[in-house]
Amino acid sequence: EDEEEDDEEEDTGMGSGGEESDNDGVFMAANVADLNLNASDDENSIENDKLDDEDESDDEDVELDQEQVSNLLLEDSDTEGGADVLEHHAGADKALAKLIKMKQEARKAGKLALERIEIASRMRCVVLLELALSSNAPLEDGAVLLAILPLLRARRSLEKVVLSSLSLSGGKKAAGLSEKRALMDRISSLLQKRVCKSRLNGISSLAGEELRAARDARAELAARVMDEAKKSLSQSHSDCCSLSLILIMKSLPQDEGNAIAIAKSVYCDAIKQWSSSKSSKLKTSILHDLIVRSPSLARVVLAEPLTDAAENARSAFLKAESFRLLSDLYHVARTDDSQLVDTGMASLQRSAGKFASSLSSAAQDSDIAKAKRARELLKAATELVAFSSAHCQNDADLWDQLEHFAGLLKDFGDGSNSPAINTKCKSIVEMVAEGSKARLGETSGKAAKMSSAGGSKKKKKKGKR
User: Fold this and answer.
1) Which is deepest, 14, 64, 77, 297, by most CB within 10 Å?
2) What is residue 200's three-state secondary structure?
3) Are the CB atoms for 192 and 240 separated by under 8 Å?
């Protein structure tokens, strides 16, 4: 019996020990899982809610890149991997694509609204500039000249945007295009009607270092404006650059060291590029405007480079354009009140021989024989013969070249199919003949006067004896 009681005690002891080990395992698992067994159910639910809120906030912080989403939608959903791959629903893909499109349209509308606000602000600035330049009193040179280059660059950038929009839209009106074009036209009007017609004080009153600094600043500005003209996308932009250059030249003292030197550095290089480079965007109006608005300065600066272009230009068209400009240059009835009138006439006289030589070369060029280009040649020849008859009677070499040209011109007229060209050639040949007779008559008259004067002197000496 005692042994049975000991066995029962051992069984009960082993049972209580087993229960304690089981409880210890439960508590250890609870500690690992960070469970508070002493806390109430309400506290556990609060903590669980906090964890759920944190998970939701983490989900909300995730932002989708629209470009990546659109790329994912374009990718093929059928990937290698068997039956475990989930397939996307086509309706969900369409909804996402529509959402992305709506976002893009909203962004585009916002960008367009900002552009319109910016253009409206720039238009107000242009109006203020127009008011500031509307005064009839002379204005400070620096205030006016410093506005030229930014306005030209702004106009060219707007014109580039307008032309590219028209080409992309196929001629249809793009959004915001009318506002940009209106601003571009307003800037053109500001430059042509206000800035380039301003009355400037000039720098004639300056001396020494101040004069040198002002002259260097205008030389740099003129070079940059000419570079802007070489990038012209239209005739309107070229006209704005041309008028700006003339304003800069008029703001300089009209003498050899200022206006003439700067104009030669700018225009002579431009003529060389215009006549020789195929990629040049320089318009002929740049040169024509200077001839019309500042004829004396143009005669000093353009006579020699234009005669070179008339003989050595890369195409018959450019040669004809050179002759057209030379005929305007030698039309001396057009004049101005510049101090360079006499200097300009002397420059024309020096270049007349080379001009006649270029006419002779063109008369033998078959490409110039076309009706359009032949008219420019004949018009230039008429102006040169008239100028030579009035101002170059004593230049024997020039008249020898003109007589040689007259012989070539007679053959040129006979070979032409146009009666008008043939008649004009005969008229020029007669002008050369009359000029030569007048020159010979004048020469013989001078010789007779000199001989008679010598004879009278001899008679006086004999009388005294």
Assistant:
1) 297
2) strand
3) yes
Query: Percent of the chain scored above 70 by pLDDT?
Result: 73
Cα separation of 265 and 301, whole Å? 9
User: What are the structure tokens assigned to 177, written together?
Assistant: 């295009």
Range of lowest pLDDT (36-50, 65-79, 152-166) = 36-50
362 within 8 A of 405, measured Cβ to Cβ: no
Token look-up 């008429």 returns: 382
Q: Ramachandran region of residue 81, left (φ > 0), alpha (ψ -120 to 50) or beta?
A: left
303 CB contacts (<8 Å, ≥6 apart)?
326, 329, 347, 348, 350, 351
pLDDT tens-digit series, residues 61-106: 445 566 665 565 555 444 444 445 555 556 667 777 878 888 888 8
The answer to whether the CB of 395 falls within 8 A of the CB of 352 is: yes
Nearest in space to 156 (alpha carbons), one of 231, 252, 253, 77? 231
**Closest C-alpha among 232, 125, 122, 234 to residue 180:** 122
**What is the Cα–Cα distance from 182 to 185, expressed in whole angstroms?**
5
- Are the C-beta atoms of 225 and 248 separated by less than 8 Å? yes
The mean pLDDT value for 144-160 works out to 92
Sign of the C-alpha dihedral computed for residues 228, 230, 231 and 235 taken in this order: positive
pLDDT reported for residue 70: 57
Q: What residue type is 56 in one-letter code?
A: E
Average pLDDT of the chain to the nearest whole number: 79
Sign of CA dihedral 23, 26, 28, 34: negative
Summarize pLDDT for 112-143 with one digit per residue, the tens.
Answer: 888 888 889 999 999 998 888 887 777 777 88
**Residue 391 near residue 349 (C-beta atoms within 8 A):** yes
Give the C-alpha separation, 117 to 246, whole Å. 35
Residue 107: partners with Cβ closer than 8 Å, 6 or more residues away: none
What was the pLDDT predicted at 100?
Answer: 84
Strand partners for 200: 139
Do residues 347 and 306 touch, judged by C-beta distance below 8 A?
no
Instruction: Measure CA of the first residue to CA of the last residue in the chain; give whole Å.
Output: 201
Residue with tokens 């030209």: 152
Which pLDDT score, from 0 to 100, does residue 177 have?
83
Cα 260 to Cα 340: distance, rounded to the nearest angstrom: 9
Q: Looking at the predicted structure, is the pLDDT value of residue 222 above 90? A: yes
Q: What is the pTM of this model?
A: 0.70
Cα(311)–Cα(137) distance, integer angstroms: 46
Tokens 């008008």 locate to 420
